From TrEMBL:
Keywords: Cell membrane, Electron transport, Heme, Iron, Membrane, Metal-binding, Signal, Transmembrane, Transmembrane helix, Transport. One of its GO terms (cellular component) is plasma membrane. Residues 1-22 form the signal peptide. GO terms for molecular function: electron transfer activity; formate dehydrogenase (NAD+) activity; formate dehydrogenase (quinone) activity; metal ion binding. Its main location: membrane. This is Formate dehydrogenase gamma subunit. It is found in: Cell membrane. It comes from the Bacteria. Belongs to the formate dehydrogenase gamma subunit family. GO terms for biological process: anaerobic respiration; formate oxidation; respiratory electron transport chain. Residues 169-367 form the Cytochrome b561 bacterial/Ni-hydrogenase domain. It is a multi-pass membrane protein. The chain crosses the membrane at residues 134-152, 179-197, 225-242, 277-298, 341-360.
Amino acid sequence: MLRHLMALLTLTLLALPFPAAAQTDPTAPDPIAGTSVDDGSATATGRQTLEDILARQRGEEPANPIRSEDLGGDALNAPGMGPLGGASDADIWRQIRFNDADIRNTTLNPNGDVLVQTGGMWWENLRKNELRTYGGWLLLGTIAVLAVFFLIRGRIRIDGGKDGTLVLRFKFIERMAHWVLAGSFLLLGFTGLFSLFGRKYLIPAFGHEVNSVLLTGSKFIHDNVSWAFMIALIIVFVMWIWHNIPDRTDITWFAQAGGIIGDKHPPAKKFNAGQKIIFWSVIVLGASVSVSGLSLLFPFQMPLFAHTFEVINNIGVPGWFGFDPLPVTLAPQEEMQFAQLWHAIVAFLMMAVILGHIYIGTLGMEGAYDAMGSGLVDRNWAHQHHSLWLEHLEEEKPGKIRTPAE
């Protein structure tokens, strides 16, 4: 019985297939150009090298390898390709990368045929490096300066304390417009920062899953809350523009440093010179960030930079600094890259301004928050910071001044 089993096992082992040992045939033809066994140069075979990748990242035009045009063919004339013929995924993507592929898109717009934009590497590098670095330091530096100023100056107190008489400073509609503008801006600011810094800081700290959920929600909030911001910006502009036109009282306010430095309290109307700077900064920067945001939402309908660059070139601005003329023919992808950078730069500047505004309205000045909280401020506060406005109310609108009993 044992002999039969041994014979059966021997026959089974002999029947198993074994791979033949690799042999080198000195008479075999050279390897096929462009295959994995080819050791030729990239320009001769069409294979991508590290130098090619680094060149594209530096914004240089990559050399078009010869195989980018060597597509298709019969399987019999393309050894090693089998029934697929001469075409392969690598060949197709090489054509796409060099914008040579015959692509059709449902938009019927020729710009939709651009699937891989090699020229966008400069934008990617600028966004990941300079934009993050300088923008982040601007915000951190602003916070640091405000902290040092608070330690040196302390809180600006009401001289003599509150007397209990209340003055109506802002109506409900004014406060509502302000808080919609402020609240929407905070949401837009945080979601924008998450989108810019998420890959660098949030992924290492919380992982890819948390970052993905956070940024998906951030994009939804950013795209939709932006409409509330733009509407509130228009309302605030219409309501307060007449109070923010510069006048002679602003010169005195600047001469006395607004009462922030020293003990003097310069006379001011409803808005002093410092508040006028905040107002016009918010209006101008807010309008700019809104227009660039709309361009990002509707890149095909609202191209901004091609025409702007054309105007700048006609004036000759690049030549003043020894630069070449700016590009005036931009694809929607390029328009979006310029718009995104401008959108982020202006947003960083606006956030720095708003940090100063938040400081004065909360921690920096006693009684300032009441103006936008309840709308009622103490009479001593109004006399100290807006004496001309208080005098106008006492003469023309005494009903806006309430005694403690009222």
